[in-house]
Amino acid sequence: MVDMDTDLDIQLPEPEQAVTVRGLRKSYGGRVVVDGVDLDVAVGEVVGLIGANGAGKTTTVECLQGLRRPDEGLVRVLGLDPTTEADRLRPLIGSQLQDSALPDRLRVHEAIDLFSTARARNAAELLDRFGLGQRGRSSFGSMSGGERQRLFLVLALLNQPRLVILDELTQGLDPAARREVWSAVSQLREGGTTVLLVTHELDEAEALCDRVVAMRSGAVLDTGTPAELVARHAGWATVRFGTGAREPSRSTTEALRRLPTVRDVTRERDQVVVRGDRATIAHVGAWLVGRGSVPDDLRVDIPDLETALLALLDIPADVRRTALAPDLDGASQ
Ligand code: ATP
Questions:
Q1: Which of these, 9, 64, 35, lies nearest to 197 by C-alpha position?
Q2: How many angstroms does the Cα of residue 24 sit away from the middle of ligand 1?
Q3: Cβ(104)–Cβ(139) under 8 Å?
Q4: Which atom of ligand 1 is nearest to the CA of 218?
Q5: How many angstroms separate the Cα of 196 from the Cα of each of 6, 30, 165, 210?
Q6: 49 CA → ligand 1 middle, Å
Q7: Which of 10, 48, 92, 146 could cross-link to 212 by cystine, CB 3.0-4.6 Å?
Q8: Is the pLDDT of residue 21 over 70?
Q9: Given CA atoms 179, 161, 166, 134 in this order, what sign does their dihedral have?
Q10: Is the CB of 219 within 6 Å of ligand 1?
Q11: Ligand 1 close to Cβ of residue 56 (< 6 A)
């Protein structure tokens, strides 16, 4: 028998780009749900596709896997066209799809056997790596949510894929289980695995991704590292500290107001609150050092990716995890 997988390895060039998408469009029943999407994932990158429910993320990754046929656009995954070369592409992608499930009675080792192909690696080592080394005989139904998702990661990695696609990996998990799964994905990142991660949870994207692609209503709104997106969409900072007095003096607030880049200075109880851009942090710091004392309660707030992109992505309040500080909210206007 010809070993198709080995054959594939010999024939396929190693592309530098794991994913290239240009002008992808897809409609369902006349309604456009993916509208001219461009997407790049370099080999070794962890890229997050983020956006609210219905943004078109899943449809996009389904087109990448050959599960849906694009209406228009160019799609290349590992140098292959998913529509016409799906059979060659399938063994090279490891995916955990949204709402993945296995029969409750299926044991972990049976799932491993079921999913193993000729390319399969040592499953025991993988199970150990994701903290499931002792769970080989456990049934899927007896596992916790975090364990199940870690098993899906093991299954996604089992056949040594060149690209791993993870769709809503931590949906429905409690905070501790989310952290477990995050740490498993961080291991992939450190190991140089190419990952496309679909999520509507911005803290997850910030924690795990090298680069983020923000989608809304079928279109890409912006792309960049989490730090670049925060700088572009929420480049403000808030510095607060006590002055030792019960109420900061007018001369203090006036002096701070005159510093470069400072936009606004207010008093909140015994603290003075200075708002501006990132440079403001340095100017206030230098001013404090110049006065000869740095207050013990000095605090700096800078927005995270969630704060930066909530408005851009139109994410409804009920999926927001981190409460927004009212002052930062105000500063974003
Ligand atoms: P979610 O986070 O909810 O999965 P998403 O960003 O992944 O959202 P998609 O699942 O790609 O978005 O869905 C985009 C739009 O297409 C949604 O409005 C959805 O209802 C619609 N849609 C998805 N699949 C189909 C289908 N098979 N037939 C008709 N409409 C569909």
A1: 64
A2: 15
A3: yes
A4: 14
A5: 25, 28, 5, 10
A6: 14
A7: 48
A8: yes
A9: negative
A10: no
A11: yes
Q: For ligand 1, pick from 57, 96, 202 the residue to mutate: most ligand atoms within 8 Å of CB.
A: 57
Architecture field, domain 236-301: 2-Layer Sandwich (3.30)
Name the residue type at position 249. Answer: S
Task: Residue 97: name the closest of 240, 239, 198 by CA.
Answer: 198
Cβ–ligand 1 distance for 199 under 6 Å, the answer no
Cβ-Cβ contacts under 8 Å for 87 (sequence gap 6 or more): none
Q: What is the pLDDT of residues 265-323, one digit of tens each?
A: 999 988 999 999 999 999 999 999 999 889 999 999 998 888 888 867 766 555 444 33
Whole-structure pTM value = 0.79
Nearest-angstrom CA–CA distance, 311 and 323: 14
H or E segment and range at residue 77: strand 72-77
Q: Where are the domains of the chain?
A: 4-231, 236-301
Query: Strand pairing partners for 80?
Result: 77
187 CA to middle of ligand 1, Å?
Answer: 30
Q: What is the pLDDT of residue 315?
A: 62
**Helices (DSSP H) in the chain: which residue ranges?**
4-11, 57-64, 86-89, 108-115, 123-129, 145-157, 175-190, 202-208, 226-233, 250-257, 278-291, 305-313, 326-331
Give the whole-angstrom CA distance, residue 225 versus residue 210: 6
Write the CB contacts of 92 (distance below 8 Å, at least 6 apart in sequence).
Answer: 8, 12, 78, 80, 161, 162, 163
- More confident position, 286 or 185: 286
Distance 31 CA to ligand 1 centre (A): 11
Identical topology for domains 4-231 and 236-301: no
- The dihedrals phi and psi of 56, each to the nearest 5 degrees, come to 105, 10
Q: Can you name the CATH fold of 4-231?
A: Rossmann fold (3.40.50)
